[in-house]
From TrEMBL, chains A, B:
Keyword DNA-binding in record: yes
Keyword Transcription: yes
Protein name as catalogued: Transcriptional regulator, LacI family
Gene Ontology terms, MF aspect: DNA-binding transcription factor activity; transcription cis-regulatory region binding
Domain HTH lacI-type: 5-61
Length: 349, 349
DNA sequence: CTGAAAGCGCTTACAG
DNA sequence: CTGAAAGCGCTTACAG
């Protein structure tokens, strides 16, 4: 390995102090430095293929220009899409991002964040697991800048950017009812996460306002790490029996993915036999024979706004910014109104 | 912000030197340090909520325990799945990963890698864009440990882990021909990337060995950043005209995703009207009405092996390891043999 | 216009 | 068993 060249090396070959080299390469005090020396310094730096050691710089300046991103699972499209947006936004400000997956486990998130903080990240973007309030409060006490993303805790006064889940789901259910569906089921997670419970609340409220008596068999609440077969089973339960639901609302992309597979397996036509709405968009929905109505999460805005708030907060950490974004209901064929269905056996292909 | 506690703080409150504190907290020279002092030091460290400053440590030891991951696009499921595997593998050795997306652009990759190197990553995992040989050679000259992943350059003696693309595609085409399909088309990318061209070579070789005269209208080569509609158009071309293909091989998950959408749009039945094979698996394929035959990329092995080679190479950078992994052909309904199709109008749902 | 010097928070030979 | 000291590669008041 060719030895890395340092400021000192440049200083020595040019015959000046490291201070001067530092000033020149950081474009500081430009007016006070002789153009000739500056030119020479830049030339030598180029020649020796100088790379500033960001680690040394960080030690001195207490800034790493690195942010930590904690998601549930980077391999989930929701997380990776967000990661990409955050990467691009951070890059605009010369920030780089370290990431990690919590797998919805507070212990893992804790360990991860600890590793990120040891590396002196300037701040964190966190999609926290259930029950993570205490650690977040701790981060606040330590004055560490962070922004929650997608999820937040109403009792904690933190920065966050999330979907207005209540309104989004309410709108979706209202749309189903307006379209003539009467027995709307929901597949969601059983968790204490506010975000997820807001979805349930929106669902129940919409039913109530429309004077539809809710039946508890319509609501399937699964563990947050539910397997594909558990999800399939829940969908199966909703669709069998004497009084099956005529519409299903999926509370996440994973639920929809496995749910739709089960609907495929049952050879049911959408929306003739069951209407479908999902939260989150996924490219994969396009492969389903009927285009799926979904609540579009404003991922671009979510990632960009969260990154901006974080970078602001890193500069001067004194305000709290909370943003609830509106979800757009993208209406497609999977919720076609009941009335205009011409025949119950519309060709499928 | 409560001031961070340093080794010095601990040393002062305990009344010892920072050297001693460092030894104790790093479990060094254990036999030479009095148990009492060691205990006291640990207690105070705990009490003051000490976090080692990894930046300072790195400056001294020249190790950051961070690796850089450069993919084409972190939001692509192929990349994000790999990222997750690498994250998990790296974590076992207390490494954290910084990532970035190159968007298939050498300039962007270069800038990214430069940023990662300035942060003193211990090594790099790179899925390089087309034409990246010169920069890789440069990295080698500088003695920077790296491993190429998914893609490599045959003329460059570097570490790499990739699929044996030739063999995998050859196997897939042979399977199609064995199943009775005779006019096998391929949708791939037009690029100088060896990996991609190996796929084309496997396709052409399999046709030749089976004495099938290749027609150039069967092969669609798209720009690597082709839009969904360009992909749809290519599929359309293959399937229209007097002599359409009866099977299509998609050379990537993105191509398959848009290609299948177009097949949906054309209301064609798979495999009755056109058989389909794809490289890469994607959860989304499950939403297609016919389960898709695909070449399973050994992602787990790819990510794990690449990470291991990199960590080895970081320890002592003196050997070159090149690994070609075998792809498994997962045969599903989309390539059902022509002979056993009972009726041309099998029900679809 | 330029340099000597201190210091960021650690590690690690070296001396005792 | 323990400490004083040098040094990793930078930045930045301060002095001239």
């Amino acid at each position: 390995m060719t030895k890395k060249t340092s400021l000192k090396d440049i200083a020595q070959t040019v015959g000046v102090s490291t201070a001067l080299v530092s000033y020149v390469l950081n474009n500081q005090k430009e007016n006070r430095i002789s153009k000739l020396v500056a030119k020479k310094i830049r030339e030598v730096a180029e020649e020796l293929n100088y790379r500033p050691n960001q680690i040394a710089k960080s030690l001195k300046t207490n800034k790493t220009y690195t942010i930590g991103l904690v998601v549930a699972d980077i391999s989930n499209p929701f997380s990776s899409s967000l990661a990409r947006i955050i990467e691009d936004e951070a890059e605009k400000f010369n920030y780089t991002v370290l990431f990690g997956s919590s797998d919805e486990k507070p212990q893992k998130a804790r360990k991860l964040i600890s590793a990120l903080l040891n590396r002196q990240v300037d701040g964190l973007l966190i999609s926290p697991p259930e029950g993570y309030e205490p650690q977040l409060a701790e981060l606040q006490n330590q004055g560490i800048p962070f922004v929650l993303i997608d999820r937040y805790f109403p009792d904690l006064k933190t920065n966050y950017v999330a979907l207005d889940n209540y309104a989004a789901i309410h709108k979706a259910v209202q749309h189903l009812l307006d379209s003539g569906y009467e027995r709307v089921g929901m597949v969601t997670f059983h968790t204490s996460l506010f975000t997820i419970n807001e979805r349930k609340r929106g669902y129940l409220a919409a039913l109530k306002e429309n004077k539809i008596p809710f039946r508890k068999t319509w609501l399937k609440e699964l563990p947050i790490d539910a397997s594909g077969s558990a999800i399939a089973k829940a969908v199966d339960d909703l669709l069998r029996g004497p009084k099956p639901v005529d519409a299903i609302l999926f509370a996440s992309n994973t639920l929809a993915l496995y749910g739709l597979q089960q609907i495929n397996a049952l050879h049911l036509n959408v929306p003739e036999q069951v209407a479908v709405v999902s939260i989150d968009q996924a490219e994969s929905y396009n492969l389903f024979r009927t285009p799926i109505t979904y609540i579009r999460q404003p991922l671009l805005e979510m990632g960009q706004v969260a990154t901006k708030i974080l970078l602001e907060s890193i500069k001067k950490n004194n305000t709290t910014t909370q943003v609830n974004l509106e979800g757009e209901l993208v209406i497609q064929d999977s919720t076609r109104p009941v009335e205009i269905i011409v025949s119950p056996t519309v060709p499928v292909g």
